[in-house]
Design brief:
Blueprint lengths: L1 H4 L9 H9 L4 H35 L4 H12 L7 E2 L23 E3 L14 E10 L2 E10 L17 E6 L8 E6 L4 E2 L1 E4 L11 E7 L2 E9 H4 L2 E9 L7 E5 L9 E4 L3 H8 L6 E7 L4 E6 L10 H14 L5 E2 L4 E2 L2 E2 L2 H7 L4 E6 L5 E11 L2 E11 L1 H50 L18 H51 L7 H32 L3 E4 H15 L5 E5 L5 E4 L1 H18 L6 E7 L3 E9 L31 H11 L3 E7 L2 E9 L4
Parallel strand pairs: 1-13, 16-19, 23-25
Antiparallel strand pairs: 2-3, 3-4, 4-10, 5-6, 5-11, 6-8, 7-9, 9-10, 11-12, 11-13, 14-15, 14-21, 17-18, 19-20, 20-21, 22-24, 25-26, 26-28, 27-28
């Protein structure tokens, strides 16, 4: 009934759900921890940058006595174009001159020359290209030429026909002096090749070894010559012919075999490597580059990070790391080759500005790189780069991140559990308080018992004590109201008796007073007061009688049928209709009280029904037992009274009649119905008012 009046209740989660939602605030703990971790990592990184810059400055000062090597290198490089230069590869495995490329690693430095690098005038009519790789081992310069040629056309006699077939032209030495030498290398079959000086074709240069092997789509040439003989410049040219009439002819290479054109050989300096080895520590890589970024010397390597934790934990931390920490880092720069460094921080150093950069790969491995300029005559002639892995920082970061996650998750779990237990305890107290309230107040709004006051001193305990005190006061007031009718009846009965005896004495003294109108009106008022007193005491007497009434089984349809027959004879002005859907229904209680209930219902229906309309009484089966209904057509009951119609002192009458009505009739109906385990209800619609009593079948 109360919930029916609250039609606009807002949906809201339970207290347990609210506390669980509030507990999500603790998620700020891992966020704070991660921010602290990022700040700590930045500080450690800044300290590492400072240390590396200090080391780089120290190393650059130590190289000051060998800067003439870099200056000489820059001078050699300045007279050749970058496209013609040949950079030597650093190989860790030995290479044998056999014409096969299987002992050259795939990661070697490769210089590719195609018809776009044609060295002849006009358009090349032959499809020719080759890849050049070079290295130094055991004091010798080794060259590998992997040539793509659809047809190998060789001279019949390479000794006399130097320029009649496919051939290799080689220029070595200093093109700016008389030390520059030119050679023709050719053969009429796979195997060792003849190396013939251009200036003296009758000779055979035995210091230069060359071997050719044919493969699918072309051939491979390997050359070997002493380091002292090669010098600092090298020109490599492939001349391709497909027939005797020179209709298909091409010349491809790095530079023409003619002074002063030649390609500078960029090799790393062993002297510089020996110097930087003195300063390098474990986990560092030191590189010296010239002013164009070519690597002149490199030593050391930064170690990859070792797994300090198990793989499953590492996978989890890697995901967390990429999610929370990698957001502010940069990826590895791509503007680099195996022999040249052109990253932004290197360019800054070549522009006379010390610089550094921190990079990560996709797995989170970090690399710190610093670059300082190498000054020659107060101008940057190159740069010194020191690279160091951030393994130590990474390990600390991973361990700290793992600890933060464990601590945060543990704290969240403990807090959520504590809040859940607290919410459960809080809900139990609130539920208990609600249950006590329901047990204290009956369905008809009467207070049945007192509440036990809580001894806890919090707000819920205070609320419990406040409600308990309020119920005690209401119960006292209810007892006062329940006894008020008896007290009022007792107080009024004495003066009524005095008035009645006085009127009787007046009649005995003077019989003529019986005809007086004033005397008649006094008798009517006296009778009305008597009826009011009777109605006031009827409910109290009924409540007391219900406590001592003996329960007996009787057939309810027989009692209802007998009452309806009596009403048809007693109320001749009203028409009754009785519809009995059942003939037998055993009910435990009092047949007299059921008859009294019928009297109140029928009296109420007669007072409110319209003339010439029937009063319908029906008794039918229901799901829980049976239903007794009395229906009349007349003035509807106001909607505001429907929920309190069966309360005491509630009346729906709008007109004044001679017979007093205090609104106790339906209240008595509710008392009798509740005594028999039944529930009264009323509905009024379309001018028809129906009052029903639902009897519940009890288990025998």
């Amino acid at each position: 009934m109360e919930h029916a009046r609250l039609k606009n209740i807002l949906p809201f989660p339970s207290i347990r759900t609210q506390l669980l939602i509030i507990s999500l605030v603790v998620l700020i703990l891992p966020w704070v921890g991660i921010q602290t971790l990022r700040d700590m990592e930045n500080l450690m990184r800044q300290q590492q940058v400072h240390n590396l810059l200090t080391t780089a400055t120290t190393v650059s000062n130590g190289l000051s006595s060998s800067l003439d090597l870099i200056e000489q290198h820059n001078l050699y490089a300045s007279v050749t174009s970058p496209e013609s230069e040949i950079v030597l590869s650093e190989l860790s495995t030995p290479v044998y001159v056999d014409g096969f490329a299987d002992d050259w690693p795939e990661q070697r430095i490769k210089h590719v020359y195609t018809v776009a690098n044609s060295l002849q005038d006009g358009i090349s009519n032959s499809q020719i290209s080759f890849t050049l790789s070079a290295t130094e081992q055991n004091g010798r310069l080794l060259l590998l030429l992997d040539v793509d040629d659809n047809k190998l056309f060789q001279a019949g006699n390479p000794a006399t026909q130097l320029h009649d077939g496919d051939r290799l032209l080689l220029g070595i030495g200093d093109p700016h002096s008389s030390m520059f030498k030119r050679y023709v290398i050719s053969s009429n079959a796979p195997g060792w090749l003849r190396v013939i000086p251009v200036e003296n074709p009758q000779l055979h240069e035995t210091r230069i070894q060359a071997e050719l092997q044919i493969r699918g789509g072309g051939y491979t040439i390997e050359l070997s010559m002493p380091r002292y003989m090669a010098g600092n410049y090298l020109s490599i040219v492939i001349v391709d012919r497909d027939n005797d009439d020179s209709s298909h002819y091409a010349v491809v290479g790095n530079t023409p075999i003619a002074p002063p054109s030649s390609g500078y050989v960029v090799r790393q300096s062993e002297i510089l490597r020996g110097l930087i080895q003195r300063y390098r520590t474990s986990g560092q890589k030191i590189t010296v580059v010239d002013r164009r970024g070519y690597i002149l010397s490199v030593d050391g390597d930064y170690k990859p990070r070792e797994e300090a934790i198990d793989s499953g934990q590492h996978d989890f931390l890697s995901r967390m790391h990429r999610l929370f920490i990698l957001a502010d880092s940069v990826t590895s720069e791509t503007e680099t080759t195996p022999y040249r460094m052109r990253q932004n921080y290197v360019l800054h150093a070549l522009d006379n500005q010390s610089s550094h950069v921190f990079t990560r790969d996709i797995n989170g491995s970090g690399l710190l790189s610093v670059a300082v300029p190498l000054l020659i005559d107060d101008q940057p002639g190159g740069a010194l780069i020191i690279q160091q892995s951030t393994d130590a920082i990474t390990d600390v970061r991973y361990r700290a991140l793992w600890k933060i996650m464990l601590t945060s998750m543990s704290a969240i779990a403990v807090i959520a559990l504590v809040l859940l237990l607290y919410a459960t305890l809080l809900i139990r107290r609130v539920t208990k308080l609600n249950r006590q309230l329901k047990e204290t107040v009956s369905d008809d709004g009467r207070l049945r018992q007192t509440m036990h006051a809580s001894i806890l001193g919090d707000e819920i305990g205070e609320l419990n004590r406040g409600i308990s005190s309020m119920i005690d006061r209401l119960q006292a007031y209810q007892q006062y109201l329940e006894t008020m009718a008896g007290k009022l009846s007792h107080e009024l009965r004495t003066p009524l008796t005095v008035v009645q005896s006085s009127l009787e004495n007046l009649r005995l003294r003077n019989d003529t007073l019986n005809d007086e109108p004033l005397m008649t009106r006094a008798d009517e008022g006296l009778n009305r007061l008597k009826m009011i007193l009777s109605n006031l005491t009827e409910a109290s007497r009924l409540e007391n009688a219900l406590k001592t009434t003996e329960m007996k089984h009787f057939n309810l349809p027989d009692v209802i049928a007998g009452c309806v027959n009596g009403y048809q004879q007693a109320f001749t002005d009203a028409r009754f209709e009785y519809h009995a859907g059942i003939n037998t229904y055993e009910l435990a209680g009092s047949a007299d009280l059921i008859a009294q209930l019928m009297d109140k219902l029928v009296s109420n229906a007669i007072d409110f029904h319209q003339p010439d309309t029937p009063i319908v009484v029906s008794l039918n089966d229901s799901k829980s037992g049976c239903r007794l209904c009395i229906q009349n057509t007349g003035e509807p009951v106001p909607e505001r009274l429907m929920t309190t119609l069966f309360d005491s002192m509630v009346s729906a009458r709008t007109t004044t009649v001679d017979t007093p009505h205090l609104g106790l009739g339906l209240y008595i109906v509710r008392l009798i119905a509740n005594f028999h385990g039944a529930t009264p209800s009323a509905r009024s619609e379309d001018g028809t008012t129906t009052i029903c009593i639902d009897f519940i079948k009890t288990m025998s």
